[in-house]
Amino acid sequence: MLYGLVYGEIFLNLERTTSRSQEMSQLLYDGYKKAVKFKDKSTTVDFCQAFITIKKDSKPTDPLPFCLLYSGYFALATVDKKEINLETLSDIRKKALKEYLKHKNNPSNVLLNYQKIMDDNNLFNAYNYYLFQIGDQEAFKSWLINNKAEYEKFVDWYTKDTNILKIDKKNLYIADPIPK
Predict the structure, then answer these.
(1) Between 20 and 30 A from 42 (CA), which of 66, 75, 89, 164?
(2) Is 110 helix (H, G, I), strand (E, B) or coil?
(3) Can you point out the beta strands (E) in the chain?
(4) What is the pLDDT of residues 11-22, one digit of tens each?
(5) Nearest 5 degrees, angle CA 158-CA 29-CA 113?
(6) Stretch (H or E) spanning 88
(7) What per-residue confidence (pLDDT) applies to 54?
């Protein structure tokens, strides 16, 4: 599930404002709503089924699978939430991003690095609303009325060629490190 969400978000950053990107916006929003279940006293985040194989020569510094790492940070970011909507999803993703990047041993991730650039420029909230807008169009329209300046700042930044998501040999996404 998490890998589909990541690849879907990368797709949305590479192919913007098409019918396919609108469909992907809906799929991403629905994917988060399906993966995160709130109960009275707990929240379940079902991003991946993880099995960890530890080799006899493994070290404590060996990386864990991205899905495990990010799922943990995402789950902790839901603590004060009761549902997934545009507002809570943006807040949860921002908290999970900050926590993931705080730990320097976590593997680099092209999408999270791109999100950090937006967060550093106070654009990540508007980006999240943009990303998931088709999932809840009424909530997006309502948010936009009250946050037009924030959204326009994001659009100005996001549509500049210098700010596109760059994927190349040095800056790419592989679901998990390839074993040596």
Answers:
(1) 66
(2) helix
(3) 36-38, 43-45
(4) 999 998 889 999
(5) 40
(6) helix 86-102
(7) 73
The structure's pTM equals: 0.90
DSSP 8-state symbol, 104: T
Please check whether residue 101 is in contact with residue 120, taking contact to mean a CB–CB distance below 8 angstroms: no
Packed helices 110-120 and 2-14: angle between N→C axes, nearest 10 degrees: 60
C-alpha closest to that of 84 among 114, 44, 144, 126: 44
Between CA 135 and CA 31 the distance in angstroms is 10
Return the number of other C-beta atoms located less than 10 Å from residue 43's C-beta: 17
Q: What is the pLDDT of residues 112-144, one digit of tens each?
A: 999 999 999 999 999 999 999 999 999 999 999
Residue reference for tokens 């190349």: 168
Mutual angle of helices 137-146 and 148-158, in 10-degree steps = 100
